[in-house]
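Dock dinuclear copper ion; give full complex structure.
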Amino acid sequence: MLQDFPLFPDQATRHAGQVDALYFYLCGVTAFFTVLIFLLLIVFAIRYRRRPGDVVTPALHANYTLEIIWSVIPLVISMTMFFWGAKVYFAQVAIPRDAMEVFVVGKQWMWKVQHMDGRREINELHVPVGRSVKLTMASEDVIHSFYVPAFRVKQDVLPGRYSTLWFKADRPGTYHLFCAEYCGNKHSGMIGSVYAMLPVPYEQWLSGEAPGETPAEMGRKMFERLGCATCHSGTSGARGPNLEGLFGRPVMLRTGQTAVADEAYLRESILNPMAKVLSGYEPVMPTYRGQINEEGLMQLIAYIRSIGPPEPAQSPAGHPTAPAPAQPGRSKS
Ligand code: CUA
């Protein structure tokens, strides 16, 4: 009977089992003390009720042993909650290096998904079972939240910045995808499905439809169309830094600080170029705010990334890139 009325969503990831175990522990501790307190309340009310003869209660003095006991026990219990919770949380926040990358843009009222091989989906996400998947997400308008109950993952998707989420489905199936942040009058319709597929069906899905252009290819075209190469030509004396081998590296800024040229840094540098100018360059780059939408930004970044240093298991074409200089552009060979 309970199968028709599930109290819990499927556990389709290992993380889901860990979250549930912690949740049941919290519920168990709470229920135990609730029952204990109510039982003692009733027992004491009966046992120490007022009896005929006006018995005077003897004066009670501090009992340090008792005080220490009832301080230490809650401390130990709350610390197990803290450390257990932190362990589950950190395991969910640390993204595995070999994760497959997928871009997601939330907009009123749909989820637009873009795979690295060029496949695009709307309100659907096909992933292989047993493979870590990292989502880089942005919103085109208001705050949305990407929520897959069966994976026990939920992450706000914010306008103006990237947020990330990862999961590794280990049970094939079709799972609900919800928007978990009220985002306007069709918020409830911003739903979809995540398909966790076994290797063979996944390969079939991959070979089913011809993928479109990859995000990196579209980004390269945009790079040309916007004339980025005029300044980012890669030659010595160019007005802008050489972008080859830039991605993921620490860079020196004009202010003397350092930053890592990751997705967030590149996004900011395209929209707000004055914010973090590289050392040795003039703040002359115009903003591209309003000219590129979130999907375009992701494509542009995918292109810059594709000419960056090769990454393990992620680099699409395996670019034979020499180790890039710490300060790109100045020491171009
Ligand atoms: Cu998007 Cu609610």
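Observed: The first helix runs from residue 14 to 47.
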